[in-house]
Amino acid sequence: MGNHVDKLAHLSYAEVPTAEPSGTDAEDDGARIGVSYIFSTDNDDALTDDRTDERTPPPPHELECAVYHTAACVYERRARDMRAQSAETLMSKCVPGDVLEFVAAGQSPHWAVYIGDFQVVHLHRAEVKCGFVMDAGRGRRCRIVNQLYKYEPLSANAVVRNATEHVGMKERELSWRNSECFAAWCKFGRREFKMGGELRIGKQPYKLKLLLNGKQAHELEFQSLEDAIMERRRRDRLGKPAVLHELEGQR
């Protein structure tokens, strides 16, 4: 029923480390503080990247979702955005400044910035690295995700410069919790993607909306975009069936 609140629950989440632990492949994003409730979904239409292969079905393990800052949508992922291809197929369509997302069931998405010549810059194992698309993909399927965040992007040259200037930075030098925050910062240059980029003063202006089966959604509130990203990535790693099972247990 519109935005009627059916259920309200306070969730206590553990804090996460400021960087990926050295020696691990997965980006183990933890969950953050939030408030959840269930309400009906919207059916907004949005543009998608015209390089998407419409014949490729979206992965069944992924949830549609959106992030709002007050009333404005700042991130949206619908079924049309989830179609992925092999890295070998997709890299022939990439242009410098594109943001790529590598996906596989049971893993958090891995993000990278395409800089040309089949190479990307990405945050991996607590270090900003430059390498080939195929190596960064590690066999995962890939998609171009320039359109997911709704902020105004920087020029392609600025995006590439942001990425390449940080190659070699590692561990305590890093200002980003994961590959997504790093790649999105390169693309948009916004402080919200950096650790501590927003003051946490008690208010929770960000809402993460997970679109469920039918007309319902599960919503969490956060003090920062960084926190919302961390929780969404945790749900991505769990996968849609596990998330639906988890939410059923909270009812």
From TrEMBL:
Pfam families: LRAT. InterPro entries: LRAT_dom, LRATD1_LRATD2. PROSITE patterns: LRAT. Residues 100-195 form the LRAT domain. This is Protein LRATD2a. It comes from Ictalurus punctatus. The gene is lratd2a.
